[in-house]
Amino acid sequence: MRMQRSLIYDISGEELKNVVVELGESSFRADQILDGVYIKRARAFSEIMNIPKGLRIKLDERFIVDPLTVKDISSSTDGTQKILFELQDDHHIESVVIPERDDRYTLCLSTQAGCMLDCAFCATGKLKFGRNLQAAEIIAQLIDSERITGKKITNIVYMGMGEPLLNYEETIKSLNILTEGKTKLIGKKRITLSTVGVLPEMVRFRNDNPGVKLALSLHATTDEQRQKIIPIARKYKLRDLLDELELFYKKFRDPITFEYILFNDFNDSDEDVKRLSKICRAFPSKVNIIPYHQSNIKTGSIDLKSTRKMEIERFSNKLRSSGTNVFVRDSSGLDINAACGQLALSVQNNDT
Ligand code: SAH
Asked: What residues act catalytically?
């Protein structure tokens, strides 16, 4: 019987050297394997022709190259593509490729199959929590998205399914491998990790971050309001989160991003503009205003509704005139349910 194989994208350059030596080969072979896997994008070790055949066979006995299977691809009229992947144990995750201006492409990737946090507006929270992804499964989303779309991904956001800081070790490992010079996958400053605000892990992340940017899913300007839509906000207060973000800013000197989904008559008042601009003034930051992708999920006891385009403009302009950096995100892929978790949710519902 074949032994359980590990995932090659899980292995750092240094670890790979040890593996190669263990297999009785010279350590320089590790660089050739990295080149074959990450730069030439081999899908099997048999494709890496500059290493000896014996080594190719041994690697194939020990490692799997790509652990993801593509199950579905949906393309939006605006060019956004959403890819549904199946993991080896049948869980599903999704990644979204969003075209930006000037031939740039942002990949939104997942860190968990499902999510434990159950935010009122988010479809992923309605999925049964599956499991944490391994670093290799995070990295494979980039490699497969580029292969499937034929585009070079220029930016990555850790904003798909799951809370990256609750899959802490594998998230950090994936960031290290993605930004490791030899894999030539993507630069540190091209990655943004988004968290809902898990304070203890944010403190840890300040120490372990290889240099990527940070975003907080704010979505409300008071604790009371935030707790109505984000259950974990009962545990971690805004004041403490903002203090931590300030420390993070002081260490890395990159502006912090605040994600703010605009809900009609919930977080779009003039008072919200005032509070939000005050929050943003404490340290260099920017706000992404996100239109609410309304789906037919239950949002708990409150009725969340999307805000009309004109209202989004009004809110954003007011915020801008208070001196805040504001970006209004397009509703990318509305027609293909590209909001977090929607596609995998429909798969799970069909399964059960
Ligand atoms: N857990 C992390 C990463 C998940 S991404 C976090 O909360 O930041 C979460 C992002 O998905 C939110 O900031 C929001 O931008 C987006 N999102 C989730 N549900 C959405 C919805 N229904 N409409 C619009 N954006 C949504």
From this structure: 94, 340
